[in-house]
Design brief:
about 290 residues, mainly alpha, ABC transporter involved in vitamin B12 uptake, BtuC, 12 helices, about 70% helix, about 0% strand
Length: about 290
């Protein structure tokens, strides 16, 4: 039982890391219906900016503030210079636009920061917490606390602020939101700025976990099953599905993988996602779209 709990808790905490990336997708999708495949490149760019500033002698807090400013400016520029002009474009055109932005960001990062791998320390050890009956990483707990604080802040934002309520209105009915006078372009800018903040937090946590390297942009692939299972427009959904994905992949690897040669952790979440697409395409918390014809 102790070993089972250790695997389960480890998986739940790993799922928090997946949730951090998925939140960036949800913010953009709720506001504009765009599936932002460039979120992974934004995570990479944020981590590279921060670690490069640290390596050039900038203090931790100053590097954090500067990186936040860079990501806000980058996210707003993407929205205003590219996506705002594609408002009425087909969904595939928007998807391809964000795919192109992803490659541009990776190329720009390579030119600006080089291709070497960087280590990143946030001052939190990855050693197990002493005194507990099971091994739980200090860093994993730290990441869970940071993610929880970010999710709580987003929840307060969407429920209590005018901009948050406006974004919820756009998500429910974009045409009605325009009809009542909401400034949709401004709200989209706020949503993209929020995605930039989420990318910075996710980039720091993932960079500290696996190192700041160009494969960090592929972390976006870990978020896809979380989005499918939780629903593309639900913050609560990606939190729950992140925990489900993290726990299930770890338990499957330990208790099923040992009988089939191992290696199922990498693909098991995608098998779950396909099952949800077949049985419940909107995910656990997504709502089916009903259109009058």
């Amino acid at each position: 039982m102790g070993f089972f709990l250790e695997v389960l808790v480890g998986g739940l905490l790993a799922g928090v890391m997946y949730t951090m990336v998925a939140l960036g997708f949800v913010l953009i999708y709720k506001a504009s219906g765009v599936f932002n495949i460039a979120q992974g490149a934004m995570v990479l760019f944020a981590a590279l900016t921060f670690v490069t500033l640290l390596e050039h002698g900038v203090a931790f807090v100053a590097a954090l503030v500067a990186s936040l400013a860079v990501m806000l400016a980058l996210a707003v520029a993407i929205e205003r210079l590219v996506l705002r002009h594609l408002v009425n474009a087909p969904p595939m055109a928007l998807f391809l636009a964000t795919l192109g932005i992803s490659f541009i960001l990776e190329g720009t990062a390579q030119l600006a920061y080089g291709t070497q791998v960087h280590g990143l320390e946030l001052g939190v050890s990855d050693a197990p917490i002493a005194g507990l009956p099971i091994a739980i990483s200090r860093f994993d707990v730290f990441a869970a606390v940071v993610a929880g604080a970010l999710v709580a802040a987003l929840g307060v934002f969407f429920r209590t602020t005018r901009a948050g309520v406006g974004l919820r209105a756009i998500a429910d009915d974009p045409l009605a939101a325009v009809a009542v006078g909401l400034d949709v372009p401004r709200l989209w800018t706020i949503a993209w700025g929020g995605a930039g903040v989420v990318a910075l937090v996710a980039g720091l946590l993932w960079g500290a976990r696996v190192g700041v390297q160009f494969s960090l942009s592929l972390v976006v692939l870990k978020a896809l099953p979380v989005l499918v299972i939780g629903g593309f427009s639900s913050i609560g959904g990606v939190i729950a599905s992140g925990a489900i994905v993290g726990a299930s992949e770890k338990l499957a690897e330990v208790y099923v993988g040992s009988h089939v040669g191992g290696g199922i952790e990498t693909w098991f979440p995608y098998a779950m996602a396909i099952g949800f697409l077949l049985l419940r395409p909107t995910g656990l918390f997504g709502r089916p779209v009903v259109a009058r014809v």
